[in-house]
Amino acid sequence: MKISLIISTYNWPEALQLCLKSVMRQSLMPEEIIIADDGSTASTKEIIDRFRKTYKWKIKHIWHEDNGFKLAEIRNKAVAQASGDYIVQIDGDVILHRDFIRDHKSFAQENSFVKGRRLMIGRTKSATLLKNKSTSVSFLSTDVKMREHGIRIPFFNLIFTSKKEKSADGVLGSNMAFSREDFVKVNGYNNSLKGWGAEDKELAQRFVNFGLVKRKVKYGAIQYHIYHPQSDNCKHDEQMREIEHLKISKNTRCENGLDEIRKDYMVYE
Known about the structure:
Distance between the termini: 22 Å
Shape: globular
CATH architecture: Alpha-Beta Complex
Strand content: 15-25%
Domain Glycosyltransferase 2-like: 4-158
Domain Galactosyltransferase C-terminal: 166-228
CATH class: Alpha Beta
Largest sheet: 9 strands, mixed
GO molecular function: transferase activity
Oligomer: single chain
Keywords: Transferase
Structural class: alpha/beta
Order of helices and strands: EHEHEHEEHEEHEHEEHHEEHE
């Protein structure tokens, strides 16, 4: 199995730097790292170029112009450039536990997709980590929430991931994994969804309609979310209505997805 790690980002190079630091310290590295960049300025590219030069690892930087929040579209473009047969997807505002990729590889199974969790780092602790360019955080740290999501117990996590659900509930695009082949079959993310909210759940609902089951990770695949104010471009309610429609229609493919992406993006590697 070849794993492509896709990291979405937009104009927060300081957080992306911590994210990439944690990636480079993985006990099991992905075959490639792909940055899905929704139109960041040059400072983000500088960080990525620095990591590529320092660590000599395969890092692709997929970038398109900033034309509003188009997370679904840039993720499609990133998957289109992926060479791996299994996609692990995160956001660029998280720090990964050193066994994050190893855990996801152990959880991978046919006919399923994986939904992970995250521990939330508070405002003060996040500011300290960013200032010191540090990735030193755990469930024992001060100023963290959802502490239980930072506990790793390999035996228990295999028990929990054996449970299968035909539901898209609770899916987080920041900690999600799936077969590239399955992603292609449902035509990837829906490019028509604008603004952030539930684009990940919409994809997951089409996975379920296609016949895949959701497997929830607990006590493994741990990540720590760096605090930031919530965006005011939320379209959650509007997108949830689309998901309710999918539950009824049982559609598996979106009409404007992976197959319809334009060649209007840059690939740096």
